[in-house]
Amino acid sequence: MIFGRSERGKPPVEPVTLKILVAGGFGVGKTTLVGAVSEIRPLRTEELLTEAGRPVDDTSGVEAKRTTTVAMDFGRITLREDLVLYLFGTPGQERFWFMWDELSEGALGAIVLADTRRLEDSFAGIDYFERRGIPFLVGVNCFEGADRYPADDIRQALDLDPDVPVVLCDARDRESVKEILIGVVQHAMAFQASHRQTVTT
Predict the structure, then answer these.
(1) Among 39, 2, 19, which Cα is nearest to 110's?
(2) CA terminus-to-terminus distance, the chain
(3) Could you give the 3-state DSSP secondary structure of residue 61?
(4) Were both Cys, which of 25, 46, 90, 108 would link to 18 (CB 3.0–4.6 Å)?
(5) 145 Rama class: left (phi>0) / alpha (psi -120 to 50) / beta
(6) How many CA atoms, within 13 angstroms, populate the side-chain half-sphere of residue 49?
(7) Which of 51, 86, 92, 52 is nearest to 70 (CA)?
(8) Taking the CB of residue 107, how many other CB atoms lie within 10 A of it?
(9) What is the DSSP code string of 75-114?
(10) Per-residue model confidence (pLDDT) at position 43
């Protein structure tokens, strides 16, 4: 880029920026997912877990976890020259859920990250996005040692609508996370198009 113009003489492309939320239960891998794919150093608001929080923070299944997100995680990824995603990871613990309303303002869509060992932790995020009409997909983070289940079994266990995508993933792997992000953008665009069609008919 030289003086605001590309080297080929074309004007620079102004990218479309989209906001995606990453939600899910405590310790499900939201911070890891944002960090795996972000092209900038992710903003993290993690604090050490303390004895004072032990009565309210359920660490069963994630006993080795030592920190928790208290506000949000933030990252950015450029999917194409004209498409940039801003990722906002929500806090997983119930005592921080009041922040979800602020974070969801203007979001195109969301990922509800799930752990098959604690699927019940996914219901809060699913209910939240369903009530607000925010399109979402469920990304099943395949932890080592956790049982693997077909996507249809997970859909049934979570009582999801047929059009909600369920994708198996590894939150540590950049390419795996990119596939999820592309999936949520495609799902959100189809969701918006179907709702526009419903309004006009």
Answers:
(1) 19
(2) 46
(3) coil
(4) 108
(5) left
(6) 16
(7) 92
(8) 19
(9) EEEEEETTEEEEEEEPP-SGGGGGGHHHHHTT-SEEEEEE
(10) 75
Q: Which two tokens mark 88?
A: 């906002």
φ and ψ of 40, to 5 deg:
-115, 165
The amino acid present at 51, given as its one-letter code, is E
The pair of structure tokens assigned to 54 is 């032990």
Pairing between β-strand 166-169 and β-strand 67-80 as defined by DSSP bridges: unpaired
Q: pLDDT tens-digit profile of 61-99?
A: 545 545 554 457 899 999 888 999 999 998 866 666 677
Question: What is the DSSP-derived secondary structure letter of residue 190?
Answer: H
Beta-carbon-side half-sphere exposure of residue 126 (alpha carbons within 13 Å):
19
8 A C-beta contact, residue 48 and residue 88? no
Token look-up 């990824």 returns 77
